[in-house]
Amino acid sequence: VHVTYRFEEQQILKFAVYDADTTNLRLEEQDFLGYCETTLGQIVSSGSLTMPLLGMSWSKGQLTVVAEELPVCRDEVLLQFRGQNLDRKDWFGTSDPFLELHKVMENGEYYIVHRTEVIKWTLKPNWKPFVIPVRSLCGGDMERSIKVICYDWNRSGNHSLIGEFYVTLNELSKGPGPDTVYQCIHPKKQKNKSTYKDSGEIILVHYEFRKVYSFLEYIMGGMQLHCTIAIDFTASNGDPNTFNSLHHVGGPLPNQYEQVLMAVGEIIQDYDSDKMFPVLGFGARLPPDGRVSHEFFVNMHPQNPYCNGVTGVVEAYKSCIRRIQLFGPTNFSPVINHVAKFAETYQDGSQYFILLIITDGVITDLPQTKQAIVRASTLPMSIIIVGVGNADFEAMDVLDGDVVPLSYKGVRAQRDIVQFVPFRNFQNLHNVNAAKALLAREVLAEIPEQIVGYMKSRNIKPKPPSSETFLQREHVLFYQQMSNCRFFNFTIFNISEMFFCPNFQIPFCFSYINFIG
């Protein structure tokens, strides 16, 4: 079954199992054996997921579902070229050369995929190295033709052709050397002048193939996601005992904090093996002495601060509201530094940390928060900020860094790790579930790219999946079950994704043997 995977969505899958007694596969004519339900995220994070079949009181069967990512070319190449003895195109005996790389399309036409910078007043340019996806350059086909055109830049935009040549990525992969020096040919000059040789040479200076891994490869290689939640308990949320408070609980609908917790938590928990979430609070007076804290555990158990699943998180939040006094100010840096301490100890790619901050107001420790984010940008960590209510969130856009990269005292963040989303953009009073889905899609969409970006910056490769594959386990189980049936002489062939015993025509998959002949 082919399914489009989306990390930011909770993709619920239901499997129904039938005993096919006839060649007519109309379901109403088959015997129903049971069903199971899960999410695609749980299957992906487990590699293979075994579930009991439900729906029949006598059923004791199990269904094992295996996830496998279809191969897609994500790799990149770093290329650098220089030119020598290029034709003079300008009045002063020089040129302003630049290169264009064109990919050949299925219809035979060429489409530009990269343009180098212009180097002015030279006949021997040395262009900067550039990185381009293999898929963009040649569709993953190492033998597909690539057209390289050298132009002389003109202010009018009507650039003058110096020459061109054709090459394949397979040829470029030989690296710099005599085989990667290309004559730059002007077709009209070659056709009209018998003495024409070339219009200069383009020389490969550097070639580097870069393997690019996917988010799924890291997840299926065992990388664990850890989500910490931080909740704003400042007084600007309003008295929880009043209906217009953002922290009012017990109304006909979940409040905005509850909706955000459920929307994000229901997806993240599929990638956390124990589904235990630490939940922090900030900006409140705590019992028994009323001291103000910007970093406390919402369940009030410092020795065991974890909440069991999304339900446990929501229950701890509701309980906390009744025990604390909302206060202030709105400081983010303590909770960011809290998670950063853990991320700092796991920089080998085995763990990645996500901090979800839910807040209603204007941040009061902006310089300290900038410093904390810049520091965290070097760590396996992402920060999601969801703004609830109708406050002015202009400062949050600064932290997001989508337009202007975030920096602190001249030090720029190494990666963009912050995603800010105002909940009001997705709030739907008539359909809470639709609002939750839209919010989760928006706040989580950048997480896979941020994770891959961190791994790529540290040159961390994903670990291979478990060496004992699902089919290997089934192979052993098959021998055991055949022996129990007192079959001892049989041959097994590997056909596609099943083992097949031709003597008895017994294909098997999942955790049982199905005799069909």
UniProtKB/TrEMBL annotation:
One of its GO terms (biological process) is cellular response to calcium ion. Belongs to the copine family. This is C2 domain-containing protein. Its main location: membrane. One of its GO terms (molecular function) is metal ion binding. The keyword Nucleus applies. One of its GO terms (cellular component) is plasma membrane. It is found in: Cell membrane; Cytoplasm; Nucleus. Pfam families: C2, Copine. Residues 59-182 form the C2 domain. Keywords: Calcium, Cell membrane, Cytoplasm, Membrane, Metal-binding, Nucleus, Repeat. It comes from Diploptera punctata (Pacific beetle cockroach). The keyword rRNA-binding does not apply. Gene3D superfamilies: C2 domain (2.60.40.150).
